[in-house]
Write a structure and sequence with these properties.
single chain, alpha/beta, Rossmann fold, seven-stranded mixed β-sheet, 6 helices, 7 strands, globular, EC 2.1.1.171, SAM-dependent_MTases_sf, 16S rRNA (guanine(966)-N(2))-methyltransferase activity, Ribosomal RNA small subunit methyltransferase D
Length: 169
Amino acid sequence: MLNAEGLRPTTDRNKETLFNWLMPYVNNARCLDVFAGSGGLGLEALSRYASHCDFIELDKQAATQLKSNLTLVNASNTAATGVHQGDALNILKGISDAPYDIIFVDPPFAKGLVAPTLAAIVDNNLVQSGSVIYLEHESTLVTPLLPAHWNIIKDKQTSALRYMLIEVN
């Protein structure tokens, strides 16, 4: 695994909980892994038969490694994938003309990226009714006010982080 500064992969335990939550949604889903890092969440979705996953990662080395990992697991041949290297908030402006079924939002801690990322998802029409968003952030951060048609359907907290599944109605 790449050892990039600030890279904080989702723990296996949290990933197991998340994909138990996502079981009804992931088959044939179009996914977006924002702040992808090692790409663990998107790769797991592809391994569970998601049809597509776009990955966004700021760190050039991490994005290059993610492209290599996709090739190694042959994901680039079994599902449509794209790795976009650069600033997530800028990339979200033009990443897709179609909404995603599942979006993973797990930004670096203490960077103030949660609220602007959620706003960019709304502003760029990246979700529709039935979409779900996985949000992970530090436990000390108050989750920003969500749009009225977004509902938190699953929510867990540890001493270090809070993670939740949000459904768009």
